[in-house]
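Objective 1b: paired records.
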Amino acid sequence: MIENSTLIHPSAIIDPSAVIADGVSVGPWTIIGPDVTIDKGTKIASHVVIKGACKIGKNNQIFQFCSIGEDCQDKKYAGEKTYLEIGDDNVFRESCTIHRGTVQDNSITKIGSRNLFMVNVHVAHDCIIGNDVIMANNSAAAGHVVIGDRAILGGFSAIHQFCHIGAFVMCGAGTVILKDIPAFVMSNGNPAKPHGINAEGLKRLGYSSEAVLNIKRAYKIVFRQQLTLEEAVDKLSLMVVQTPEIQVLIDSLNQSTRGIIR
């Protein structure tokens, strides 16, 4: 079903079962398959392939040569029906590849809203991407990766499968991430090593000077005092009353499944 005011180039190939909402534009030589739903205002450039089952929200921009909702590269995948869900106001620059989930996990890859995926970014099966994330050119997330809100991945960053990247994390170009990165932490290197907190980013987001200072103190508890994660969390819990923002760090530590970078 295609709304009347939708702008479809004559050379585009769209399956009759696809649901294309009002105000969507589709460029030349783009292919949209069955089980695809695209909401209002989304703009799709030329030479894009979108496969189902795939649900795309409002006002997304998908640039040329992107592959959205393709079968995953997991060798266990045997053609089961799996899903991709994309929120609103995301930008997918040229040649991004976003794969659906697998039945070995929850069968779905989920992407939030207002994210920027730069040229040649890869998001593999079963990934969960939050809101306001930036993945710079050629960065890649392997299967089952979780990336928290407002994380920034530098160009050519590579994230090992099942890793968790906390909210407000910043990774330098070429970072190889083999373990979880707690919230607020800046990292770089191969393998990734912690290098303090994303203080400047937090200030730009309106965090008070006191909150930033206490998050720095929390970072030292986790990374400088030779404590186990359980011991560090116990000490951080005492700081939450004064600085509620530290709960974000505690949550990311509690959710770690691969151990954290040190």
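Objective 1b, second protein:
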Amino acid sequence: MKRLAIPRAKKRLGQNFLIDDYVVSQIIQLIKPQHADHIIEIGPGTGALTDLLVRTKAQITAIEVDRDLARSLLEHYANIATFKLHNSDIMNFDLGMLREQSTEWKIIGNLPYNIATPLIMNLVTHRSLWSEMIFMLQKEVALRLTAKAGARSYGRLSVMAQRQAHISYKFEVNAASFSPQPKVQSAVIRFQPIDDKKNPEIDVYFEKIVKLAFATRRKTLANSLKSLIPTDVIKRAGIDPKSRAENLTIAEYERLALETLEVSGH
């Protein structure tokens, strides 16, 4: 099937179209589309990934915000019964409606840099909807999402996302793989949901603690968290009050949240 022509990119939509067939094949190898799969493709653009996805006869649901591209894609795949398209902004899309079709969606996409972080933070909270996510995004964001405690890139995004999913850094993508070429490097990462049950009662405290700690990450925990947690509570959680935000693991943040919950009397 002949691929759609590359249109003039719309800057307001953060469009950079993937044109590298080798990178396309690498991404497809990662997601391993099968006939029985339900796949969501975010921002199919000119169909670089879509062409290979539809050949598997998997159920493809594409979400494309660009009205012109959506129209072209619908015409291009008009004879593909397994292809559906929503001309919609993924940031406002009702993901819950897709749960009726499957709770094992594979989600794939070349994410615009301007929405990648908030979109991923929303998607990881829908763990009951998907079985795997493969995204290409700005290398800097990919490093933050996969960073471990103690690393320079480790921050609030790392903690909040990794609490919901196993995230692995797969490979980097050169700017020349896109049209137009972005000014930054890209990388592909994989998300797999964490199945262990979380204590929902600590979620509010967990988010507050992580936000406070990283807001002033150069300060000790005793100073950065003093408006929420007394030093003795930090010690009770088995954590050194002189530690800094980037030194704590997710499990340690959960212990802090649990101790805070208990002293609050809830």
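The first helix runs from residue 21 to 31. The two ends are 60 Å apart (CA to CA).
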